């Protein structure tokens, strides 16, 4: 079909698209609109409307702006969206409006070139659009008993949060007067986000997203004050370089403080226990409390904070030690120190924040060592890439063995395969690398349970070799 599309005439192309459109609409009409197959059929029909509009514009070269395609597309499918009331179709329709609005600002720069005519104002309009949609969906779910799943609300909330965060970060960078109102709107949005999803409807994921937004804005503000404007003093370095770590811990505390701890189920459980005891039924309770696991989005927040803190920490260090990087010996020394520091962090890590902070520091140290090795081997007559590849292969093998981190072991195993491939390619033996990686992977998986005390290590190495087999499989 795709091969013969270019050979088709315009009428045949229109016939194919329109025939498919009529077919899926017929399926939706034949089925009841409340059934899943009707909803899926109308969703497919909505997509085909966009295909038909794109084909019409391509065939007749209408010269319409791209935003008009998405806006007309959204208008044409609005009756289907209202009739079927399918969440996926509502999200598609809202996405079309977002695309139309963004492309309109890209073309014209503002509404009638008057209201919010700056290029940054598009974030404000996107924020208003998605916030209104989120408020309507929340109101409909609470007051009108609309069937609204949490994942769709979170997607709409993501559009609202990303827009206002980008607008605030734009103001921090550029202080554009036309968007100064964000200084009032952004704190109100954070307060409303916490109030609604802490008191009205508990959703820890959205509160964690608000924490990520606040951390990003505050960190960018500190970067502007300390790095770009040069306003920091010598004594402020040690206090502010850990701002990302402090923000990450505060965000974690806010998110964990809002995590439900069993209310109101705890009260119901106590009442049930009391009634069972009165009836003479003995309840055997566990002697040790069940540990509460950290939600995945709180762990994601900690990982993000760890990488953010590491980036700024390494940036501050680079500002003071950039002259040392010019020396291969100094680069090698600093790289080894950073890897040793990462090793210590991994040994003491009790959270994802320190785990990912150690990963970032270790990766930076490995880059410095690779830079020093490249400068050292450049003076030798033997093929440069072969020497560098074998050196990095030995380094990654050592790290894969000694680093007390599952993620780092997997990365080092993968990087060792890449370095081995680089060394073998320099000696015209590139295809051997994939076979050796596959052989190592097979040997590990075949003997996984022979070392029960190191089964986690074996699995981490196996994942690294498995990833390495993909880019070298050809």
Automatic annotation (TrEMBL):
Domain DUF4401: 295-466
Bilayer-crossing regions: 12-33, 40-60, 66-83, 90-109, 121-139, 151-173, 179-197, 204-227, 296-317, 329-346, 358-377, 384-405, 411-444
Every DUF2157 domain range: 2-90
Coiled coil: none
Transmembrane helix is among the record's keywords: yes
Keyword terms of this UniProt record: Membrane, Transmembrane, Transmembrane helix
Protein name per its UniProtKB record: DUF2157 domain-containing protein
Species: Vreelandella sulfidaeris
